[in-house]
Structures are given as structure tokens and as C-alpha cells.
Amino acid sequence: MDIPFASASLSAHVTMSAPHPLSLRGKMLAFRYAWQGIAYMLRTQPNAWFQIGVWITVTAVGLAFGLSAGEWCAAVLAMALVWITEALNTAIEDVVDLASPGRHPLAGRAKDVAAGSVVVAVAASGIVGLIIFGPRFWALLP
């Protein structure tokens, strides 16, 4: 695939080839773009920072309680689910803003559904947390 290269001179038109997606350079670029997406989410979404705080807290409490391998798997998957849905929500909101800069009922509905998926993921993760940590905290009560 040829990509036009902008030059100081409008008369010059240089093309450069995009790397093959399976090449090392192609993979490195893919990871770079992915990290740019994560950085964008951290810059623009305060909830992403809150979720990192939850990850740190769950990790610390999980280490203190000595979670089993299965409990760690459930906790990590639950936390990842929230992060993934937050990222998808951010992407959907940006694409909707691009496609429909003005107010439109369908644009609002798409954003609401995307935000709703985050709420479902947070609720499910909370239930997983209660299943894993609830009995342990309950046992600490006098």
C-alpha cells in the first residue's frame, strides 16, 4: 500500500510503503498505536485512573488474603472486563462525535448503550469481588 508523503514542495510526490502487518516493524507499529490509545484514554477519561486505583487495591488485598490461582484469574478477568469496556466506550464516543458533531437521537443512543456496557461490567466485577472477598471480610468481623 502506498501512502502519499507530504513535502515542502507541492510538485514533489513521494510514496513510502507501509510495513507488512506481520513484519517486526509492522508489529512494533501496532503496539505503538495501541499504547497511544491507552495513553489517550488515561489523558481523557478520569474513570480510567479510578480503575487503576481499584486494580492496585484489589491486588494488595488479594495478596494479603492469599487468593488462590482461580480467584486471581476471576479477579483479573473482572478488572480487565471493566478496562476493556471503558476503552470501547471511549472509542465509540469519539467515533460518534466524529460522525455526528451535532445532537442526534441515534448518536445519543449509541453513546448511552456504550456507557451502559461499562455499568454492566462494573456491576459484574463487583459481584465477582463480593464472591471472592466477601467471605474473607465477613470472617474478620467480631
Q: What's the topology here?
A:
Layout: E1 2-5, E2 14-17, H1 24-44, H2 46-65, H3 69-99, H4 105-140
Antiparallel strand pairs: 1-2
Describe the protein's architecture and organization:
This protein has two domains: 44 residues, no CATH class; 97 residues, Helix Hairpins, CATH 1.10.287.3610. The protein is flat. A two-stranded antiparallel ribbon has the order 1-2. The longest helix has 36 residues. It has 142 residues and is mostly helical. It has four helices and two strands. A hairpin with an 8-residue loop joins strand 1 and strand 2. The N terminus is likely disordered.
Q: How many strands?
A: 2
Order of helices and strands: EEHHHH
Report the total helices: 4
Our measurement of the CA-to-CA distance between the termini, rounded to an integer number of angstroms, reads 68 Å
Shape field: flat
Structural class: mainly alpha
Number of domains: 2
